[in-house]
């Protein structure tokens, strides 16, 4: 599924944060539902200096 998401990490960040805000209560639920490897997603967004914040349920 990560292949179907935007390749550009900044656009990916926007899409993921929007989904977390509007549809999912945690990154685990998002990754499970979209069949995404959580480590792969986190590594891709760490590449642009963003990390998942569990309290805010967003990449910051």
Short description:
The chain is mainly alpha-helical and 60 residues long.
Describe this structure in words.
- The N and C termini lie far apart (22 Å).
- Strand 1 and strand 2 (58-59) form a beta hairpin.
- The mean pLDDT is 95.
- The protein has a two-stranded antiparallel sheet with strand order 1-2.
- With 60 residues, it is mainly alpha-helical.
- It is globular and about 25 Å long.
- The protein is 52% helix and 7% strand.
Summarize the biggest pleated sheet: 2 strands, antiparallel
Cα-to-Cα separation, first versus last residue:
22 Å
Query: How many strand elements?
Result: 2
Strand content: 5-15%
Structural class: mainly alpha
* Main β-sheet, spatial strand arrangement: 1-2
Query: H/E element string?
Result: HHHEE
Which stretches of 5+ consecutive residues score pLDDT under 50?
A: none
Number of helices: 3
Task: Give a topology summary.
Layout: H1 9-22, H2 27-34, H3 38-46, E1 52-53, E2 58-59
Antiparallel strand pairs: 1-2
Please supply descriptive tags for the structure shown above:
about 60 residues; mainly alpha; two-stranded antiparallel sheet; 3 helices; 2 strands; about 5% strand; globular
């Amino acid at each position: 599924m990560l292949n179907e998401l935007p390749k550009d990490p900044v656009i990916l960040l926007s899409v993921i944060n929007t989904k977390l805000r509007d549809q999912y209560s945690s990154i685990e639920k998002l990754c499970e539902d979209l069949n995404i490897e959580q480590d792969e997603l986190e590594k891709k967004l760490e590449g642009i200096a963003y990390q998942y914040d569990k309290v805010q349920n967003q990449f910051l």
